[in-house]
Amino acid sequence: MSGVRLLIGTQKGAFIATSDGMRRDWMIDGPIFGGWEIYHLAGSPADPNRLYASQSTSWFGQLIQRSDDGGRSWQPFSNDFSYASETGTHQWYDGTPHPWEFARVWHLEPSATDPDTVYAGVEDAALFRTTDGANSWSELAGLRTHNSGPSWQPGAGGMCVHTIVLDPVDPARIFVAISAAGAFRSEDGGSSWQPINRGLRSDGIPGGEAEVGHCVHRIAMHPSRPQVLYMQKHWDVMRTDNAGDSWHEVSGNLPSDFGFPIAVHTHEPDTVYVVPITSDSEHYPPEGKLRVYRSKTGGDEWEPLTTGLPQENCYANVLRDAMAVDSLDPCGIYFGTTGGQVYGSADQGDSWVPILRDLPRVLSVEVQSLP
Amino acid sequence: MIRVTLPQHLRVLANVEGEVSLEVPQAPTQADLLDALEAAYPMLRATVRDPTTMRRRPFIRFFAGEEDLSNEGPEARLPDSVASGSEPLRIIGAMAGG
Fold first, then answer.
1. Which residue of A has its CA nearest to B92?
2. Which of A328, A267, A323, A266 is nearest to A3 (CA)?
3. Which of the ends of chain B has fewer CB neighbours closer than 10 A, N or C?
C-alpha cells in the first residue's frame, strides 16, 4: 500500500486528507462543497478514484456528487430518490401515522466489485441502489414496505437507514440498520427483508423481545467472518455469531455502553473498537475523557486507549459514521468528533494524533487504502 | 428571454456567474420558469422545488424587485416586468442561522 485517503464529511463541507503509508504527515484538501452538509463520502473498493458524496442542505435538498479522479474534481449526478411505490405511513413521534417523506441520504455503500454499483440508505427509511454510477437510483422497496413498516418510529435524528453492510462472501446477503426500527437482513439481494433483533433489549419496549423498535446505532463486520456482527445500540454493545438470528450483549467492563460508532480491526476479527458516551441525554465522553475502547476478545473485555487523546474537558461526541479502519499493517484507525477534530492512530489504537483540529462538526469519516 | 438570479450555492452548482437567461413561453408562470431553469441546468433539478410536490422548497423565496412572489404558487403568472426581461426573478435562500 502506498498510502491512505481520509474522506471527511462535515456540517459545512467535505475534506480529504491524504498520507503515505507512514500516516504521519497529512495533506489536506477542502472545504469541498463549502457550506453544504456532507453526511457521507465513500470510495469504491473496486476503483479507489471513484468517490461518491451525499451533499444536502435544508435550503436546496439532496445532491449526489461523483468524482472519477480521487476527489480532485466532482460532478453532480442523479438526485432523484423517488420511492418506487405508493408510500404509506410510519409512526410519528407522538404515535400518529405520518407519511413517508424523503429527506436525505445518510449513507453510501459502494459495491466491493463494481464501481458503478452503490447502495444508499435514506431518510425516511428506505434503501436505494444505482448500477450505473449514480446516473439513476432505484429503490429496493421490500425494506420500506416490510409489514412492520407502519409501526416504525423515527429516532431523534430522523427515521433513517444509516448502516448498510454487504456480505463479502454471499452477494445476495445485505444487512441494514434503521433508527429506530432495528436491524434487518436480506438473503435475496435486497428484494425481501426480515428483522434480526432477537436478543436486543431496549427500555420502553414491552417484553424486551420486540421484533422492531430498537434504536440500533451501528453494525460492523469483519469480512473474513460474515456470520459475526458487532452492534453499538442506543445502549448496549451486542454481538451475533449467526448473522443476526440472535444477539447477546458484550458490553462487559465498558464505563458506559452508550455510543454511536463501532469498528472491527482489519486484520483481527476479534478486535473491536467503540467510543463510549456518557448517556442518551449526555452525548459526550464520561468524565470529559475521550477514550476509544478496544476489545481483543470479541467483546466483554475492553481496554481504554487514551494516548494522545484529550483526558480532560472533552465534551465532543463521535457520530455513527465517523470512525473507520484502514487495511495497512499495522491497522490504522480514524475518527472525527462533533467538536471538529479528526484523530488518527497508525498503531491500531495504541496512540493517537490529531490530523485536523478545527473543522465543522464531523458527520462521517471513511478511509481508503491506496494501492 | 427571462432573467433569473440564483443564490450563491446554486450558481456554484450550475457553474454560472451573474444572471442566467431562459427561454420561456408567452405569459409564463412560475412553473414555466422553473421548468426552463431545470431544462437548461439539470443539476439544479430538485434544488429549488420539491420533486414530489413541485412546490418551492420551504427555505426558498422568489422576488421580483421588492415584490415577494413566494406564496403565489406554481401556476401564478409572472409579473410583466419579469416576463418582459426588464428585471430578473430573484431566487433567494431564506435567512436562517447556523
1. A59
2. A328
3. C
